[in-house]
Amino acid sequence: MEAAKNEKDVYILAIESSCDETAAAVVKNGREVLSNAISSQIALHTLYGGVVPEIASRKHIEKINQVIEEALQTAGMTLQEMDAIGVTYGPGLVGALLVGVAEAKAIAYAAGLPLVGVHHIEGHVSANYIEDRTWEPPFLCLIVSGGHTHLVLVKEYGSYEIIGRTHDDAAGESFDKVARAIGLGYPGGPKIDKLAKEGNKHAIAFPRAHIEGAPYDFSFSGVKSAVLNYVNSCEMKQEEINRADVAASFQEAVVDVLVSRTVAAAKEYGMKRVAMAGGVAANSALRAAMKEACEKAGLSLMYPSPIYCTDNAAMIGAAAYYEYKKGVRHGLDLNAVPNLMIGQR
Ligand code: KG4
Ligand code: ZN
Q1: 91 ligand 1 Cβ < 6 A
Q2: Is residue 304 within 6 Å of ligand 1 at its C-beta?
Q3: pLDDT at position 1
Q4: Judgement on whether residues 143 and 274 belong to the same structural domain of the protein
Q5: Which residues share a beta bridge with 311?
Q6: pLDDT at residue 7 tops 80
Q7: Is residue 333 part of a domain?
Q8: For 221-255, what is each residue's pLDDT tens digit?
Q9: What is the pLDDT of residue 182?
């Protein structure tokens, strides 16, 4: 028997279409995931070695209604029982974002529901609220996705201060590019993660970049170029490349930098609690190394389950809830903002 809806509870139908996953979810009170439907386009983009924006938009259009229906059905709820529609409106691919935004506006209008636009990266951070229903700001968050690498102080719900950022490639982007260079295909992160388990992480000394005067900033283009040079020089010398060693050594270089800078920033800013977010936070070596370093430094650590690290709509529902509670409402003129900044409203 279905439980009667408690009037104080807030149910949000959330929609995510910023890159290559079409996703919808129903989230209760920002913490409880009642459904999390995801239609992945990865297999399609694998054919091209990366996300093709035009194909992504078309696929979102094809799948979005189906995914929303599935989310409502799995939650056992109707649109009329929702309190708001949450949707990612940036950053991301403009054509992909527009599909979700247009859909959310149409549903909000038709059902007479408030509309709450969500920043995709703030969604990633909010995945931690789903993972542990007691996890609250303030905390330091390492955000590592395909497009972003940031160290952020989460001061309160929806309040962020960026204290570190990448100067070039995002962490996930470097995984994807290195994977392509060693013939692993797209998306590179999970493939490198898997292959690295068979390799020696100390086999090749790839560089760790430090940025003068910016101790919490990152740069990954150097390590990526070093891998490409290594692969090219092996090919020129007709030496066989041990791909597992390359994967493990590259991963170690990235993980080392991410972990050491996060722990140093936590100390400097007096943060006792650390979280991770974004696709790369699913990386098993990063999770293990961060856990060990945080234990050593006396910091408590939180990271979402892998399914909530990579793109999903449940995290958008969690972020939308805290915006909704603050009274944030977007009009039907809400537009996709491909380069939306964290904390921008
Ligand atoms: O957060 P996400 O799903 O999408 C963006 O907002 O960008 O992140 C995707 C990125 C890709 O670069 C992918 O290769 C990387 O996350 N990724 C991983 C792993 N799983 C996904 N990187 C390293 N190890 C993984 N296990
Ligand atoms: Zn993402």
Answers
A1: no
A2: no
A3: 44
A4: yes
A5: none
A6: no
A7: no
A8: 999 999 999 999 999 999 999 999 999 999 999 99
A9: 95
Render 170-221 in DSSP notation, one character per residue.
-HHHHHHHHHHHTT--SSHHHHHHHHHTTS-TTSS-------TT-TT-B--H
217 and 231 inside one domain: yes
| Ligand 1 close to Cβ of residue 217 (< 6 A) | no
Q: Which ligand neighbours the alpha carbon of 147 most closely?
A: 1
Q: How far is the CA of 283 from the centre of ligand 1 (A)?
A: 8
Q: Whose CA is nearest to atom 13 of ligand 1?
A: 189
144 and 277, same domain (yes or no): yes
- From 38, 97, 280, 316, give the residue whose CB has the most ligand 1 atoms within 8 Å, as the site to mutate: 280
Amino acid present at 10:
V
Among residues 280, 312, 314, the alpha carbon closest in space to that of 148 is found at: 280
161-197 exposure pattern, b = at least 16 Cβ within 10 A, e = fewer: eebbbbeebbbbbbbbbbbbbbebebbbbbbbbebbe
Total number of domains in the chain: 2
pLDDT higher at 313 or 44? 313
CATH number at residue 272: 3.30.420.40
Contacts of 7 (CB under 8 A, 6+ apart): none
> Could you tell me the distance, in angstroms and rounded to a whole number, from the CA of residue 174 to the centre of ligand 1?
10
Mean pLDDT of 177-201: 95
The ligand placed nearest to the CA atom of residue 51 is 1
Residue 50: what pLDDT?
84
Ligand 1 pocket, residue 90 CB under 6 Å: no
Q: How far is CA 217 from the centre of its chain?
A: 19
Average pLDDT of the chain to the nearest whole number: 95
Residue 172 lies in a domain: yes
Q: What is the mean pLDDT of residues 302-311?
A: 98
Task: Indicate if 65 and 199 belong to the same structural domain.
Answer: no
**Same-domain check for residues 288 and 317:** no
